[in-house]
Each structure stands twice: as structure tokens, then as C-alpha cells.
Write a structure and sequence with these properties.
It is a single chain. This protein has 327 residues and is mainly α. It has one domain. It has 15 helices and no strands. The longest helix is centred in the C-terminal third of the chain and has 37 residues. The chain is globular. Bound molecules: zinc ion (2 copies). One zinc ion binds next to loops.
Length: 327
Amino acid sequence: MTKEDHMFEQPVSEWEQAFAMLYEHRMVGRTLGEVWLGALGGFSGMAQAIRRSEYQSLATSAAEALQWVCLFTYGCSHSRAGSTLHISNSLSEIVAISYPGVCGRCQSVPCACDSLAIDKRRPWPLNLKLLAHRREQLGFREFSFGNWLQMFTKIFGGRVQMMSLESVGFHLLEEATEVALNIDVLARIDQYLDRESDAAAEVAEATKSIEGFIELYSALRGEELYARDLDPVSYAPSSVLASFLQAKAGLLVGIADTFSWLCTALTKTELILNSNQALGAQSEIDQVLRNLYMGSGQSLRCPKCSSAPCQCNEFSESLPRLGRQHD
Ligand SMILES: [Zn+2]
Ligand SMILES: [Zn+2]
């Protein structure tokens, strides 16, 4: 592998850092919900590209969506400790909870889930021991986008061949919207919580680490707690905590699923473009990201204003897609 090749394969965590530096001012003026709205803009661009069979702009929109997803997870990890949206782990670490090198549901490679059961929610919480073991074995922290695409191809490649790109796009939008709704619930709970209360203390404890959260969720048996305590008109601490656990679990799983469907959309596109090519390594997204955010230079710059850090005004930035045309 040449030095040049290696640059295409920088870890996702490095992209998170680099995008946060490039677009620091986007973070300052926005809530985390508004940052995710930028990602939704990218996903919507992907949906439009799928509808029009414009595969090149699909990759560009995917790169823009990934940039906003990276800003979101970076923002979560740098949010106030104890806030309901705080997540101390990187994007790869979040994805690894649901996909620790195997299908999160059946825990095998390739996925052996019953195709009729594929749409059912995967059991939560997942196996923390398996995650710890796999983390050590596979080193998710160093995973590049290309590594994730390869992994998802290994796990779901057979299934992807049977699905239409449109169906993949629907799954992607469904998961990304679910993330948005969970962010909204968590932001409301954060505003409501009295910082001095016991419920706030429990939330703070649960947001210190993903492992801590999963443990609390397991200990309280989140699903049962939810069924028992989620009274729609109640502000009792147990109801608030039940809502928090559900929304946070939904957020973590939703981020992982959104990311996996985004990777699947890229893999499926590649399959369509090379319909004779056997399933194999798909690392092109690193190159798309590099082309878009680095151009011919060696460092990141904004593709719209060509500056680093980005100097775009607030109004052009609210349109996350490049050169979008309506039809
Ligand atoms: Zn499976
Ligand atoms: Zn700019």
C-alpha cells in the first residue's frame, strides 16, 4: 500500500475531527438536532439521486451526508457531560455496538436472519462481551469508511443483491428520520430535567459511556420499564427515565442503522455499475470524500467556498447539497 493509498483509508475518527475543524462555525450556531437536519439533507439528496438513477451525485450526496453525521457524533461527544444527547464514543464505536463484525441480530457472517424477520427490531441490549472481544480483535476505533463498507458487504452482501436500490433508500430515510425523532425527544427531556434531581443524576450516570448506558438499560430492563412507566400524561421521574432510555437506545441503534444503510446504498450502486463484478472490497467512498473535500490539494477545504475553515455565510450553508436542481 502506497502512502497515497493509505490517505484514502484514514480512520472515521480522523474524518470526524477534520470536519469539526473545517466546519467549526456550523457547530456553534446549531443545536445537535439542527446538525442532524444537515445529514437529512444529504440523505434526501441520495434519495433524489436514486429516483433519477444519477449514481455520481448519489456518491456526492453520501459524502455530504457523512460529513454531517460526523459533525453530529463529534458534537454529541463534545456536548455538556450529563446532557441527554451526550455520547462519549466515536461514530465507529457507535456502529460497532450494533454491528460488532457480525449481524447484530443473528450474530453471524454472512447474516443468516430469516428474511421475513429482517424488518423486526433487533434485540436490545446486545452482547457487551461480544462487543469487547470484537473491539480488541478488529480494532473498530481505527476503522475507515472503506473498512465498514467491506464489513457490511461480508455480512449483508448476499441480501443486498436481492434488494432494489429504491428499497435500500427507503430503509435509509426511515432510520435517519427515526434518529431525528429520538434527538427531538432527548432534547426536550434535557430541557425539562431539573439538574439537581435524582432523575438527572441517573441520566448523567447513563451518558458517561455507551457501555454504562447499555448496562443501565439492561438492569432496568428498558423495554419492560417503558411498557410499565411510559404514561403519556405523566411527568413522574420513572416516566421521564423510561422515555430517556427508549429514546437514547433508539438514537444509538438508529445512528448505526442509518450508517449501515448508507454503506449498503453505496455498495448497491457499485453493484449496479459493475453488474458482472463479484462482491468485493468497496472503498471508493474514501476517494469520493477526498475528491470532494480535498480536491487536488493535500488538506481539507470547503467545496463551496474553497476555504479552510469554511467561510460560507449562514444562508448558503443551510442548503447542504451542491448544485441542487429541482425538477
Ligand atoms: Zn442476521
Ligand atoms: Zn464554505
